[in-house]
Structure formats: structure tokens, C-alpha cells
Amino acid sequence: MQQRYAAVLCVLAVLGLEAAAPGECELTRLLQDKLQYEMRLQYMKHYFPIDYTVPVQYEEVLRPSNISRLRNWTVSETALRYLWFHINSQAVLRIREVLPEKHPSWKYTWELCQLFDALGKEYSKYQQTDVEAVVADLVNLVHSGGVESRRKAVRPKALLDNCLKVMRMLYWVPCGWETT
Q1: Looking at 20-29, 51-60, 101-110, which range is the least confident one?
Q2: pLDDT of 10 over the 90 cut
Q3: pLDDT for 3
Q4: Model-level pTM?
Q5: Burial classification of residue 168, based on how many CB atoms lie within 10 Å of its CB (0-12 exposed, 13-18 middle, 19 or more buried)
Q6: Taking all residues of the chain, what is their mean pLDDT, rounded to a whole number?
Q7: How many CA atoms does the CB half-sphere of 59 hold within 13 Å?
Q8: d(CA 127, CA 139)
Q9: Which residue has the higher pLDDT, 1 or 119?
Q10: Which residues are 57's β-sheet partners?
Q11: Distance separating alpha carbons of residues 115 and 28, to the nearest angstrom
Q12: Beta-bridge mates of residue 54
């Protein structure tokens, strides 16, 4: 097992990708399981009124195209995963803010928050000084929640759809995920 992991690290180094920590891979795999299409559809669409939206900061919507653009600017994979974590943990909190405790999606979003909290422990070793300035600025902006940032109305399911798509982009190769 150790030799196989070392071989994967060597391949990633040759490809120029930065490896994700084993704990990070396990937690994101659990998160991927929790974000299955059927669950997102049931908890984030069917249990909400038609066309229901959540107000989020413009920067809290992270799409695959944003990741591609940042990769073109040669932002490191570690910094991109750091950004993904901060933006999507905030997005889940935004969804939870609008839910009453008796809502059918309450437990589901609580479980997502638990996974993001556990993942936060993995990311606690990173400092904003360790990532590129553009990523650090975005993370600061997302956490500031200031009125100066633009707001956007987004469907809860769309937030989690983007979360999953970007997570797969960032963790697919480093974690050795198979096609699901």
C-alpha cells in the first residue's frame, strides 16, 4: 500500500499535480457520496419551493470555468482546493441559514456541514500566506461577507452542483477516483 501511494505521488509530481493528503481524499470521497444526484435533487430542489433562490455573494459561486481560468494563471492545485473548500463551506452555510430546523433538508445540510468541518481540520495547516494572492483575496472576500460585494440569487441545488463538479475537477486525479 505504501509503495503504491509513493508511486502515485511520483506520477503526480511528473504530471505537475500536487497530491492531496489521504485524509483529504477520504473526506472528499464521503462528500462526493453525500452529493449524489438523487440526494441533491431531493433535498435541494424537491423540498424547496419552485424557483427558490438563496442570496449569495457573487464570489461564492465557483464554477469549473473559474477553476480553468485560475489554472491558466498558474495557480497551484493546493491553492485551488483551498479556495474550493472555503467557497463551498460558505455556500452550504448560506443554504442552512434559510432553513428552519424542522425542514426536511436540515439534517442533510447538517451532515454536509459536518463533512466540511472535518475537511476544515485538514485545511487548517494551510495559511493564506501559503497560497497565491488572488486566492487569498477571494477567500478574504468570501469570509468578509461585506455589503460592498455583489449579491446573486442562486438555487440551492445549483450551488451543490457546482460544488461537486469543481470537487471532481480538483480531486479526481490526485485521489485516484474511479468513474462513478
Answers
A1: 20-29
A2: no
A3: 39
A4: 0.82
A5: middle
A6: 84
A7: 21
A8: 11
A9: 119
A10: 151
A11: 8
A12: 154
Over residues 48-75, the pLDDT tens digits come to: 999 999 999 988 999 999 999 999 988 9
Q: At what angle do helices 77-97 and 133-144 cross, to 10 degrees?
A: 10
Q: What would the DSSP string read from start to end of the chain?
A: -HHHHHHHHHHHHHHTPPPPPHHHHHHHHHHHHHT-HHHHHIIIIITS-TT--EEEEGGG---HHHHHHHHHTT--HHHHHHHHHHHHHHHHHHHHHT--TTSTTHHHHHHHHHHHHHHHHHHTT--GGGS-HHHHHHHHHHHH--TTS-EEEE-HHHHHHHHHHHHHHHHTTTTTPPP-
Banded model confidence at residue 128, pLDDT cuts 50, 70, 90: low
Hey, what's the cell of 47? 423540498
Closest CA to 123 of 169, 60, 170: 170
Which residues, at least 6 apart from 140, have a Cβ–Cβ distance to it below 8 Å? 128
